[in-house]
UniProtKB/TrEMBL annotation, chain A:
It is a multi-pass membrane protein. The chain crosses the membrane at residues 53-75, 87-106, 134-159. The keyword NAD applies. InterPro entries: ComplexI_Subunit6, NADH_UbQ/plastoQ_OxRdtase_su6, Nuo/plastoQ_OxRdtase_6_NuoJ. Pfam families: Oxidored_q3 (PF00499). The keyword Coiled coil does not apply. Residues 1-15 form the signal peptide. This is NADH-ubiquinone oxidoreductase chain 6. It is an enzyme of class 7 (translocase). It catalyses: a ubiquinone + NADH + 5 H(+)(in) = a ubiquinol + NAD(+) + 4 H(+)(out). Its EC number is 7.1.1.2. It comes from Collichthys lucidus. It comes from the Eukaryota.
UniProtKB/TrEMBL annotation, chain B:
It comes from Collichthys lucidus (Big head croaker). GO terms for cellular component: mitochondrial inner membrane; NADH dehydrogenase complex; respiratory chain complex; transmembrane transporter complex. Its EC number is 7.1.1.2. It catalyses: a ubiquinone + NADH + 5 H(+)(in) = a ubiquinol + NAD(+) + 4 H(+)(out). The chain crosses the membrane at residues 6-22, 29-49, 61-80. Pfam families: Oxidored_q2. The lineage of its organism: Eukaryota, Metazoa, Chordata, Craniata, Vertebrata. It comes from the Eukaryota. This is NADH-ubiquinone oxidoreductase chain 4L.
Automatic annotation (TrEMBL), chain C:
It comes from Collichthys lucidus. InterPro entries: Complex_I_Subunit_2 (IPR050175), NADH_DH_su2_C (IPR010933), NADH_UbQ_OxRdtase_chain2 (IPR003917), ND/Mrp_TM (IPR001750). The chain crosses the membrane at residues 57-80, 92-115, 152-170, 177-195, 201-220, 232-254, 274-293, 325-347. GO terms for molecular function: NADH dehydrogenase (ubiquinone) activity. Coiled coil: none annotated. This is NADH-ubiquinone oxidoreductase chain 2. Keywords: Electron transport, Membrane, Mitochondrion, Mitochondrion inner membrane, NAD, Respiratory chain, Translocase, Transmembrane, Transmembrane helix, Transport, Ubiquinone.
Amino acid sequence: MTYIMSLFLFGLVLGLVAVASNPSPYFAALGLVVVAGLGCGILVGHGGHFLSLILFLIYLGGMLVVFAYSAALAAEPYPESWGSRPVMVYILAYVVGVVMVSGQFWGGWYETSWVPVDELGELSVLRGDSGGVALMYAGGGGMLVISAWVLLLTLFVVLELTRGLSRGALRAV
Amino acid sequence: MTPTHFAFSAAFILGLAGLAFHRTHLLSALLCLEGMMLSLFIALSLWTLQLDSTNLSASPMLLLAFSACEASTGLALLVATTRTHGTDRLQSLNLLQC
Amino acid sequence: MNPIVSCTLLITLGLGTTITFASSHWFLAWMGLEINTLAILPLMAQHHHPRATEATLKYFLTQATAASTLLFATTTNAWLNGQWDIQHMTHPLPITLFTIALALKIGLAPLHIWLPEVLQGLDLVTGLIMSTWQKLAPFALLLQIYPANSTLLIMLGLASTLIGGWGGLNQTQLRKILAYSSIAHLGWMILVLQFSPALTLLTLFLYIIMTFSTFLVFHLNNATNINTLATTWTKTPALTALTPLLLLSLGGLPPLSGFMPKWLILQELTKQDLALTATLAALTALLSLYFYLRLSYALALTMFPNNPSGTSPWRLQSPQIMYPLALSITAALTLLPLTPTVTALMMP
């Protein structure tokens, strides 16, 4: 388990390197999908099954699908994947940077610091995260109202930003 | 600093560096923003899980709601700039310089 | 834009700032900032021309980056200390990150590049909201950080006053000049933040009054560059006589109320044994004064070549409401005699 968790953490950082190194958008979207999947794995490993499910359904299933769709619309004739030279330079720079910084902290990490907290706990029916959702619906009224209002507001914002029949590429300003 | 803490901090800073340095497409800048929000979501969830604090485990979900709002607004702006500028390359956003 | 939608957006803009004011928990403060950003975006892009859209996009990218960096700083603080309260920041690393994030949010000097460009793309009323109301929520957070990173704040403040003066020198666009003036004023506020938060608040208050009247004057005259200013005497002669005084008040000349914050800040810095910093700040204010003087010159001392019918629009009644402008311009010019009262109220 410890081995898998460290592999997941390693993959998380490497996935962000893949996103940040300026490839074409659909490769970046692919990298982000991998990162989100690994994030689900990390959360499950730490005992947050419900949060992991939320991440999988909302983030991966809701938002990243839209991003992948937009990336597919923005296709370009000569895409740059991670193999091409300028992207490779960025990847190398980022990896070297991460390795150097982690070298600073390497001495402080020992065997048990990789162990997720959840492995040391006992098996219980009521997990912290799903209990927290019940608590959010029971006592977190104000926050829920604010979040719902913001989601509604975003609908207006998106409609206002994109609406208009006469707003093509050619028109009088 | 535990390895977990280091991992999500590194992920966030990589996303920030990717956003700040060279971006060709607006869409990949938005993807970097999403990567930053994802690492923040993981950080908040792991914090509540490690401390077993039931009270704060709603905060990752609220964060996810807000980051969904941000993402959709970003995509709406992508559509708007593609309409006005004809492309989503960040180099073409130079009307306001002087 | 539909008036109901725009009313909803304005109310939500107020809601975001209010949430940030009321919060003692970092997460809620972050939510307030996000609501604020989301609500102003359609107002910025309401005319949908390419420059407005581009300004909206630039504003969105910087604000989203700043907000997520802010949340990262607070999450790091929670991992290191286990604290979410705004008042309980003790570790220096989150404090530094947080200060940098807020500097990006309000546009302090090394992170200021977006502000002139964004302001240039907006109409003057939205620009007014952008340079006054949008500064309130970040300042409410900055004022609550107690063990501030003092070197960083001094560096940010000095760089802002310098660049705010320097960048405005070569501009002919009024909105860019106002953006640089905003950067310089924010630099003065940040300079004194760690010594006397009350003084920062006073400076912010006076800055808002002066910027409010300046934007309204330019809006009244429909002026977006210096050339247009030369014809304002044909539209509103009385206001044209007052506007140079208003600009000099922004520059901080003695008999006007803009002098009060600069005077008190210089006094406070000298008291803290920072005579060199105070001298540098006062010298960089001269750079800002140069472009305020140039605007005043174009307004009051030049005659634009004009045909006879062009000199008569001052007979027409303006349909705009003048009372807010009258109040704010009076306050922006004549508040200096209140200085002893203000000092007595602020520093008990």
